[in-house]
Amino acid sequence: MAIQVIQSQRIEVLVDCLIEQLKAQQSTNALSVLQERHIVVPDPAIAAWLKQQIAEKISISANIKHHHKIVGLQWKAYEWALPNEQDRERIKGINMPPLIMQWRIYNTLSPFIASDQFDALTVPEDLHALIQRVYDTSRQLPDLQKRASKRQDMLYWIAAQVTRLFTNYMGYRGSCIHTPDEGVEHWVCPHCDTDWLRAWSQNQPLNILQLAGLKPQQAEEYLPTHASQLEHWQRWLWHHVFQKDFNDRQEIDNKFWFALSRAEDQRQQQFDLGFDEPEMEDDERHQTHNGLPEQIFVFTTLELPPAQLKFLYRLSAFTDVHLLYFNPSREYWADMVDPVWKDRYNLKLQQRYIERNPKVTSEQIQAYLNTTNAEFRESQHSLLTRLGKRARDNFALLVNMSGGDGWEDLFPEDEPTSLLGQIQYDIMTLEEPVAHEYALSAEDHSIQFHVCHSSLRQLEVLRDQLVHWLAAGTAEEPHHPSDVLILVPNLKELEPHIRTVFSTTRGLKKTAQDLPYIPVKIAGVVSQDVENAWQAFVGRIEISQGRFTAEDFHDWLNLNAVQELYQLDHVQMERMMELLIHAGFRRGLDEQHMMAYLSEKDRDYRYTFKFALDRLVLGVAIPKHEVYAGTLSFAGVLSSDFELVQTLIRIYRDISARRDWLLPEANSKTVQQWFQQLDADLKPFIESSGRAFDNIRSVMRAVSQRLYNAQSDKVQSLPENFQLPLALVLKEIQKSIDAAAEQSEPTGSVTFADIGKIRQVPYDLVVLMNMDSGKFPRRDQQLPFDLMELLKPVLGDRSRLEDDKGAFLDALLFARKSLWMFYNGFDVNDGESREPSSVLYEFSQFLAKMIRPDLLDQPHDAMTDLDGLRVPQQLSPLYQVHPLQPFDPNGFKAGNPLRFKDQWFAVAEHILDQTGQRQSWINRDYPVPEETDVRVLDGQEWIKDVVFPARLYLKTLGVASVYTGDQLPQQEPLLLDKLQQYQVRELLQKHYVQSQTLQSHDVEHAAEIHEPDIALFQDVLPVGHTRTGTWKISLQEQEQLLERLKGRSITPITQQNLAIEDQLLLNITLPEDIQTTQWLSCMASSAKPKRQTQTWLEYLLWLSYLDLGNEGTTHIREVICNDKSIICKGLSSDQAKQQLTQWLGLWRHAQKRPVVLPAALVRQDKANWVANEQGQVVLENMSKLQEKWLNNHSFGGMELESDEANCHHRDWKFILQQQAPDALFELSCTHYAEKLYRIMDEDETGAKKLEVVK
Known about the structure:
Elements: E1 3-8, H1 11-28, E2 37-41, H2 44-58, E3 64-68, H3 69-81, H4 85-94, H5 98-109, H6 128-138, H7 144-172, H8 196-201, H9 208-212, H10 219-222, H11 227-241, H12 243-273, E4 295-299, H13 306-315, E5 320-326, H14 339-356, H15 362-370, H16 373-376, H17 382-387, H18 389-402, E6 407-409, H19 419-429, E7 447-452, H20 455-471, E8 484-488, H21 491-501, E9 520-522, H22 528-542, H23 550-557, H24 560-565, H25 570-583, H26 591-594, H27 609-621, E10 627-628, E11 631-632, H28 642-657, H29 671-688, H30 691-710, H31 726-741, E12 750-754, E13 763-768, H32 787-790, H33 800-814, E14 815-824, H34 838-850, E15 863-866, E16 869-872, E17 879-881, H35 905-912, E18 935-938, H36 939-947, H37 949-957, H38 978-998, H39 1006-1010, H40 1026-1045, E19 1053-1061, E20 1064-1071, E21 1078-1082, H41 1089-1106, E22 1116-1120, E23 1125-1128, H42 1133-1152, H43 1159-1162, E24 1169-1171, E25 1177-1179, H44 1182-1190, H45 1210-1215, H46 1221-1241, E26 1250-1253
Parallel strand pairs: 1-5, 1-6, 2-3, 2-4, 4-5, 7-14, 7-17, 8-12, 8-13, 9-12, 13-14, 18-20, 21-22
Antiparallel strand pairs: 10-11, 15-16, 19-20, 22-23, 23-26, 24-25
């Protein structure tokens, strides 16, 4: 029995070899298909792909057990060879999950941060640097509890990082990899640089200078000052926390090899004595006499720690081990070096030689360099040696361990037919391409560079390209979505954009040609259902720990799991939020919650959730704006809202009951108790929602089971009273949920994955995205406190930077037909060109050196400009530069690669069309259907439509004008803005002025009316001390309003229907007493031009309803506004009807096409009507109005998009896009201004019918 290595550059060949071995085993025993076969794989992606390949080729893949890496096989082998129950319990105890390691480290260090100040006397000296760092992070916080919480979080983060460190140390620095001297019983390696943990278990410090490869005199200059500090506290932690576990592991390992040797000796003795092997059952024949399987397969390796490779080779002495090894090259390349490293090394060597020999000549320098070792170490293929350092080291370890004996080479001999195939072939043969000799075919699209402006644009381009690529498949060579792998360095950041661009379009009324559906799966990311379920569950606990704003509550309530828990639909949820906002909810749960955020002197707890809820509850019984027992009732509660109010009470109780769970006072619970409580809290969600929460519960119970095992009597890794804050427990559950999803596996669709998660799996098309400088190779994966990074590396060490380079090389080698690379070559803001990733740049330079220019006499370094991007001329066929926007006409030019004609094609085609003549405005009427039934319109809504025709036109089109400023307020008022001041004045007038005038005959309530209760206004007054000042100012304004009333009473009003046409009725507002000649009212707003016009139309409707013929000139409509009074008088009923007819004509016209005649603009200044050259009566200040209409600068605090008198108003801007607003305004004024507005300023006699007085 020995290890057998089968190497190939084609992983499909390795699969065929594996299947042949499995079939050979089946041929010897028919029942062998039911026996377990053990395969070691580097990651779950290869395991899933391999299982699928085996099932497709031999129709069954049952009983195949995959072991994650060699270390996974090692723990399983311990159980095979040591079946004793006691040994198995010890194996389970020392095979510690990383989470338990982290908790043990935290539990050991937490007593040292219990006090608020760092006490050097209570902390071991070796830990001073570490614990001091923890205290430094919280020193600036003023609150005692916040400092303690910050120290806990920092210590927990350190425990997590140290766990990763020790896990790496166990793989790469956990044992000696050198061979013992023969004949020495207790051999100690004299020059071991990888047996750190054994030394630390004996509390022996490492020789930092020796491990760094420095001389004593070089220590201060080259050795990092904190290296010794790191060694001190890491050694202390290992010695005090994991010494016993390490010793137990060494003992188990020794016992394991002893058991195998003893079994082998017994077998040999039986063979020598001529005894037959004992009979075994069929299901046991896959095992040998020593408990091991007859065969173990190792299918490719991504990382090969020397200690694990040594274990594998020792194991091969007792069972057959088959290593199916992916090797990029068939040649020996273990001693090849990176050409860049080689040049740097030679330069340093030359500098040192010159320093020692100042008078040396150039010939002597060259002769010296020719004799150095680095010169003999070749770099035959620069791309392989530059990107494949990890693969080279693995290959060197294998060769050093086995000597190359027993290796079988199965490399393909197919001639390449594309640029991609040629590169793969050159790597396999280890031949550097001859400079500028490869002739690129015009039909060769195997390698493509796509240059975009942003990540979102990359996805849009990718979608178009994928549609074209999938459609290009043939019956002989079909293209399937499962043939596509897309790798990105930042998948979580890109995930929302992926879901947006590749969203499912099935079910929409679109043809497959318009919106093709591309099935997409995002591997390694938590599904949206599970993520939303977790946010719903944990939100009920965490939401009360912040400010608890209305926006936060709305986001939580909008989650499907929350709505299912409380049996709500989306309409009910939105109505619930509307009730809360109108009732005054802005931030805070209740008084107790706000005490943590307000000062001791501030006791204003309005605008909380409880404040609004109390108002709603009282509004169920008293649906009026009244105060009862200190609570202001809410008048807007409907009978259909009663159930929603009951649900809000339940929600408040649920959140309030969990408000203390995350506080420091709740830290007395053990972790096991927290898991029990969380499991009980999860149960209602499971009953209401189901599957997503089942996944969460399984993760929680798995973590809880690890804790239970660690606290069991046989293991005792953690004490039973181990405590953690709930916040850290929830964080750990979240990490476990993410970790469960990070096991990226190939899918049956287009697969998105993090680069490096799916490697050495072949795909027809491999896409690399976001290959930008700074994003790839990734710089955020460095592990802090890592001594391996500071000290001299050892062959086989893992480098995360080299991991990313190796992932790029794998993408290049495992792309079977095409390799696409996307990067942002331009800045999205200024359009300046940007460099790609250094790896991508080096690859492009390699191609530029390899490919022959189009013209033989052209310089090899000639550059060409591709829409602002300079690239080597010979690479221009490989580059595709895409415009910033998908509908840019440049993206649809014939010279560009074919794009799928999606929804943007019509837009680009229209932009390119220059034959049509542009009109100044919409020149066709919108078809308004004629009404056959009687219509009843609200009079006030009709008035709003005609004074601002844009509103009417959009309403006719069925377009809703949504404006962020129209949304419900999210913040409590600190100072009242204009709108909020209006609300206060309106309430005061309603409950104070109008009530006084309407009920002045009620002597009994006169005192109550004259003394307004501030409690009635607690939902509109600002918070804090400004409330009193605002209240006093408002009362003063009302006193001034009373003085302007001069003792007059507000006219009572009613609603009546006015027939203005046969099929059209208006429900209008007019005085209750039909005999009155004066209609007096007061308004909280100012007398702006729009309000003047609205008052004028109310006056016209009143006179038209009275139908007094030529009489009615004595009737007066007066509105006392906040600043001025509006008085309308002097018209008869007949004149009012004539004017109303003109306004009705405007109303009908404005429904068919835009009429630019906003009252806010026409009546903005004092009007002076004059006759123009054509004899038309027009406004004299027309040019000034035009200037205000077209003004694009905002002054005075009003935004242009909110100014109805400006063409940049959001509604006008939407209606008048691609039109001439100046011409439209002039046309509308010519048709309607004099007919509608002149009579307000002057009639035939020159008398004004509408006056504005102070």
